[in-house]
Amino acid sequence: VCAASTPHFIDLTQVRHVVLVLSGKGGVGKSTITTELALALRHAGKRVGILDVDLCGPSIPRMLSVGRPDVHQCDSGWVPVYTDAQKSLALMSIGFLLEDPDEAVVWRGPKKTAMISQFVSDVAWGELDVLLVDTPPGTSDEHLAVLENLKKHRVDGAVLVTTPQAVSTGDVRREITFCKKTGVRILGIIENMSGFACPHCSECSNIFSKGGGEELAKLTGSVFLGSVPLDPLLGSSIEQGKDFIESFPDSATFSAINSISQTLLESLQT
User: Fold this and answer.
1) In which residues is ATP bound (predicted)?
2) What is the C-alpha end-to-end distance of the chain, expressed in Å?
3) Which of 21, 99, 113, 162 has the most CB atoms lying inside 10 A of its own CB?
């Protein structure tokens, strides 16, 4: 552990790629997708970081079962929390800084902006292949603060998460407009909760609708990264903070997540 000191502003020169995970709508499983992409990339041998800037709903620490460890400082800034002994998956979240996990973050815009600026500038990520930035829903102050601070380094682009229904794809369409206005490259669209994967027979039933994300990608000229079904095994893994990809490598959901992560890597390298 580094000795406590006053952090100074640093850059992200040791971070090869920065990817935003966006959605115009809450409840689409954006944090779940961020977590599973990070795990898939780690299993592919990459060093990954997650910056959780969903200040009002920091759920990723629980999803990765890291609890509420103390965040330390060193000469380079805040030391991220590592989820494994090999330090291949790093995480920073406001969830680590709250005294009470049930405490509500009731902050006005300027305080949120200042906190995000600290997260981006004062975390000593070290060498990473990919930094995933999990954002809150919408196109608000937090998103602008993330972009303003990260653009001092470089943002490779954004992955947009939607569910199949028209009400969700409509909100994500606005997120696409936001990306175009702010000059953020759209790396692709993921359709989450695309059908229900039965844990007994592996059959996939369309509880909602299907194909909304792929259709949106076609209409907007975006890359469709793939579909992830609504899988009870994935849900229970997230609830228990377990590594779904390690636990269920033969599942169709694993194949979907792994394929998306590989497509994303290829996109980042071109």
Assistant:
1) 24-31
2) 37
3) 162
Does the annotation list 26 as a binding residue? yes
25 known ligand binder: yes
CA atoms of 142 and 148, how far apart (whole Å): 10
Q: Where are the domains of the chain?
A: 15-269
Domain 15-269 has CATH 3.40.50.300: yes
b/e per residue, 235-262, with b = 16+ CB within 10 A?
Answer: eebbeeebbbbeebeebbbbebbbebbe
Whether residue 201 is annotated as binding a ligand: the answer is yes
pLDDT tens digit at each of 270 positions of the chain: 343 444 444 457 789 999 999 987 788 889 999 999 999 999 999 999 999 988 888 889 999 998 777 788 877 788 999 998 899 999 999 888 877 767 777 778 788 888 888 888 889 999 999 999 998 887 777 888 888 888 777 899 999 999 888 778 888 888 899 899 999 999 999 999 887 777 767 677 776 667 788 888 998 899 999 999 888 889 999 999 999 989 999 888 999 999 999 999 999 987
DSSP letter assigned to residue 22: E
Q: Is 27 annotated as a binding residue?
A: yes
Instruction: Determine the length of the chain.
Output: 270
Residue 56 structure tokens: 């009002």
Residue 28, annotated as binding a ligand? yes
**Is 179 annotated to bind ligand?**
no
* 31 assigned binding-site residue: yes
DSSP 94-162: GGGT-SSTT------HHHHHHHHHHHHHSB---SEEEEEEE--SSSSHHHHHHHHHHTTT---EEEEEE
| Residue 198, annotated as binding a ligand | yes
